[in-house]
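hiii so um. not sure if this is the right channel but i have a protein structure encoded as tokens and i wanna go backwards to a sequence. like what aa goes where. can anyone help
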């Protein structure tokens, strides 16, 4: 007796397609979660490296980089991402015979197309070959926030979710004091690009 070959009915075929669709959706969701976690880990790692660089700068110069180069050096600027730009410029300084941070080039941007006068570039003696005032951005393309402890309580204009927003140093709800009260704060706006003063899904040093 010959064997009979049975094909899929329309209903069975639709069920198989539906199962494949569910599995594909789960795989896509898991991949998205994995990418998000990877980016968060990358931001945490970069923040720790920046902290080491800022601390090394302090050992050589007796203080952390200022929050604003515009105020510290009395230069005009657009007032956007001043803390990040100051941090990058000072960590790139070789005035003491060394720089303080090994920048990952893909994270260096000049989002607001600003620059410094050549005289100030020479004074800082940075490692860059031009006068572009750069920002160091997180895996989502937003500059990290840097605030010196002298400026806790003040508001600064920073880039978040592609547009300028005002932020101030983060405070602990439990202790009613600023995080890192005698040092500095560094944080990223996190996956959603929205600054919450180092709360919510922001990625910070604490």
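sure thing!! here u go:
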């Amino acid at each position: 007796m010959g064997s009979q070959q049975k094909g899929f009915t329309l209903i069975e075929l639709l069920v198989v397609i539906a199962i494949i669709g569910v599995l594909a959706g789960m795989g896509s969701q898991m991949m998205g979660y994995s990418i998000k976690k990877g980016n968060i880990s990358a931001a945490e790692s970069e923040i720790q490296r920046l902290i080491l660089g800022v601390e090394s700068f302090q050992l050589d110069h007796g203080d952390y980089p200022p929050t604003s180069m515009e105020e510290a050096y009395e230069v005009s600027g657009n007032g956007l991402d001043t803390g990040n730009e100051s941090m990058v410029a000072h960590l790139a300084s070789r005035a003491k015979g060394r720089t303080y941070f090994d920048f990952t080039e893909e994270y260096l941007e000049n989002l607001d197309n600003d620059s410094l006068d050549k005289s100030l570039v020479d004074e800082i003696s940075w490692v860059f070959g031009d006068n572009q005032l750069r920002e160091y951005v997180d895996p989502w393309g937003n500059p990290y926030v840097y605030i010196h402890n002298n400026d806790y309580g003040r508001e600064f204009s920073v880039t978040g979710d592609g547009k300028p927003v005002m932020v101030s140093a983060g405070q602990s709800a439990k202790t009613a004091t600023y995080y890192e009260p005698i040092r500095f704060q560094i944080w990223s706006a996190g996956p959603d690009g929205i600054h919450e003063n180092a709360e919510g899904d922001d990625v910070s040093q604490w």
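oh and The mean pLDDT is 90.
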